[in-house]
Batch of 4 targets.
Target 1
Amino acid sequence: MSKGIIKRTRQFYSTRRINTWVIFYVLIYAILIIKLITIQELDSSMVFGVYSFLASLYILSRFALVYFYEPDPTRLDRRFEPTISFGIPAKNEEANIKETILRIAATDYPKDKFDIIAINDGSTDGTLDEMMAAQRTALTRGIHVRIVHWQRNKGKREGMAECVRQSTKDIVIFIDSDSFVEPSTARALVQYFADDRVAAVAGHAYVANANTNLLTKMQEVRYFVAFKAYKAAEALFGAVTCCSGCCSAYRRAYLGEMLDPWLHQRFLGVPCTYGDDRSLTNFLLQRGYKALFAPEAIAYTFVPDGFRQFMRQQLRWKKSRVRESFKAPGFMWQKHPLMALSFYLGVLLPLVAPVVLPSHLVPVTQPLTSRFTA
């Protein structure tokens, strides 16, 4: 069943990629038209006019920067073959965990140079049984799968930390328990680590269940923009602010430097138990390391197909973004000036929006044509 989903997903993205770009450019055109209209507000509301201009500058600059993003070939080495551990923290993922592990086991990489570490984080369903079944199948292919079973749930951050502790390899690639990777994903990620300054590399995640309903299709567009535009723009300056948990690689030696403070991170006196990928990336950026984006490192992940589940996920993500937005400004100024400016705008604009926008969320009674002829 999962193989069929992935096959259909590949076909789906190969045929719809051009349509996505068409939609993207139509949206950009719409934004420019709206900005042309709202620029008239400069006369009646300087604050709103400035906000509108900066918001447009922030969004469009991200897309403009993508044009210049191209991985530096002098820093890449396709022959580079460090040892790898794939880390998979999982809780109650009996539907996908076996396929996740076996997809990793099919990785196009020397079998003696990678292993798989699966953490069963207090699951109450058949996750452990599915892990063990995958372990037996992988062993017949010469792939070692190590299973760590916890009776009590400890959280994803603890699971990720345990993967680092259990590993003896050079690179740790974290894969979400409901994500499937391509055979070439590992090679696409590790070639960036030929540069010693690189601590983390994010892969590109596509939505595996995009055709389920309108909500999943909307998330497909969001994922496309988040990776192809936002992460690519940040990678231009070696400062991807969130190496997503669904598929990202880390240099294990650098993780060891900050594993304990990251694991025991607190915010306003409360232990941090969400937004682990964004937090981990920030810890590495704070130490001066680079975080990059590998567009050719492909993974397929399942997104929420129900509104309530989606809202819970988004609340966790937004809480972590706010928390990390208080931390990152303390060191982001040390990055490239364009990266720093873009980052600070991204932090400032959402904070100002609740103050600026309510007074302008009223029907436009003046005819549109009169705004240009007045």
Target 2
Amino acid sequence: MHESSTADLVKQLWQRGNPIREIGRLLHLSRSTVRRLLKREELPDSMELRDESAQELAALIQSLLPACRGNLVRVHEILTGDDYKYDLSYSTLTHMVRKHQLKEDGKKKRFGVYSYDPGVEMQHDSSPHRLLINGQATTTQCASLIFGYSRKLFIQYYPCFTRFEAKIFLQEALSFMGGSCQRCVIDNTSVILGAGAGSYAVVAQDMLFFSRVFGFTFMAHAVRDANRKGKIERQFHYAENNFLAGRTFKDWADLNAQARLWCEIANDKIKPELGSKSPNAVFILEKPTLIALPAVMPPIYKTLQRVADTEGCINLDRNRYSVPESHIGHTMDVHCYMDKIEIYYQHRFVARHPRIVGQRNKRITIAGHHPRFIKQKRQDAHVQVERQLKGHNTVLDAYLTSLKSHVKGRGMSSFKQLLRLKQTYPWDAFMAAVTQASRYGLYDMKRLETMILKQIRECIFNL
């Protein structure tokens, strides 16, 4: 029973002489409730807006709301401040605004259900999702497309969502669907629109050409009317709490491969709003009404210009791709596809690289683009000389180690002279001289050669 009718009944019983205990027993109320209903006073006239002062207060509140941008806390501060000095609690203010609908912004409005014939409308939108890729938390952009009649769904993920990614996604989505509807409902995003909003929206020129290739038109819904594309809005919650739950991803390719597989499974599930049918079952009726795909899919890429830096690389999305050294300082034309980039100079092909997606500060170098520097060649020659000297005798290895610490720099000249002595003179005489030089700490190659010749004179030419 409503509280006002209960209060009237309690007052009638009390006026007839019934005690509080008896009233509580008859109406199944506690004695404290009966007392509260008997003592309850009518609401003040100010809350019912019955007198002129209350009407003036309501008009004042309504005039302050636009200036305060609908902030009732600020309205309450102004009313109770030095300018007006109203003795008004915040709860009374909110009650007046709520009951008499002085503030219309927060009021929920009824909206209907949009239904369409097969092949008439599809809806597209994107939303940020937080997930783990290779164990690292990453903010991704989930792009989705749904058919209004069959509710067939397709989603993919991208590091960012520009017009380039929008074209790639829509082409892939329409290929997945096998055709397109007559119109595509979108929100008022600058990714697709060039100017305006709602019915005054102007589609960007490149996106307009793209839609003409596939035979559909973009339609932006009215501002703050997200329910117009509610079929796609609900799918983001579905994907975030069903697809992403309990799944791990190695990289972006693995993420989108699992997303495509999940779409095939989700489109086979029964939906009550489709009359206990799955989207794939209803799509059988919608497919004949779709606009056929073009015979040849246009390649989607964006053309950029980059100058080859002094290290023989071009920079793209904070990653570096190599070009031949002969192009240092040249302005290169870069054709950026989803999975690769192609580099041209004066319309001539220069190089092709796999595109790095979702990473930064990476570098790809093709063999032959950057010949080794002279310093590197000298270092390799030094290593080769040292390799020919080591591993033949432990005494010689120990002498080489000591020689490194007694010569300036890398000791390339001393190592070459030692290798020449090893290759020129007999091994026994050479090792006898090295052993003696190691014992006395002699590292002058000319003196070592003199010691070798002395060994040869004593051992070989002893007549």
Target 3
Amino acid sequence: MHNPGADWAGIPFGRVFHAQCAAYLGQGELVEEIVNSMADRVYPSLHMSLGPDGRIFNFDGNGAFPDIINRSIAFSLNGTLDLLRSIPPGWEEGSIRGILARGQIRIDELTWDRPAGTVRLKLTSGKDQTVTLRMPTFEAIESDNPVNRDVCIQESPLGENSREVTLSAGKKATIELGF
């Protein structure tokens, strides 16, 4: 029975759903706060426990944590790929590999260094398409460099934080952005 006075955010599945929403909404500080608050519930295998005592295995957190991380770093929808959308402040630099995004896009590798203001992105598209890459609205893209010749990068009507990238089916595209 639902108890309206219960602190559902204290229960792991409540916390992970809250973090997923924060990642979607671009609230990196909240993502970091929630992820860090759940560190005492992670087994050495990186699976999660329902409580800090480690006695009950928790499926919700195990499925949601990769989504929270992926959604914070790279989020795709309707022909766009948002980079570092809700990156937590403590994640100054890092990389991810092998993420599947909507629109038949595989992120082979995404490496970022926020103090240096750089992003390096390796993509493979399952079809010929133009995708809009977007940085957070407060990060204007100052430079773009298509590392391979098959990639075409153009200004985007969406603003200084966006670029339109033409991808060819099955060909790896490497792009460097400065912000």
Target 4
Amino acid sequence: MPIYEYLCSHCNAHHEIEQKISEDELSVCPLCHEKALKKVFSPSVGFQFKGTGFYATDYQQKGCGSCCSSCPKAKTTT
């Protein structure tokens, strides 16, 4: 589920809120309760994968595979 960042233009509070992609944007600040909340661009969007089939080892770098065998990235252990 993605984590979105919001900024309130009334109280200047910064919020990180976990929402479904299909949910509408929030507009009311949870702190000051004013309708001044805007979604801000975040360069690092976070996803949290849960359930079976998602393991940390699935995302490890295995090497580039496109360069020569002398490249340290090309050497993998299996």
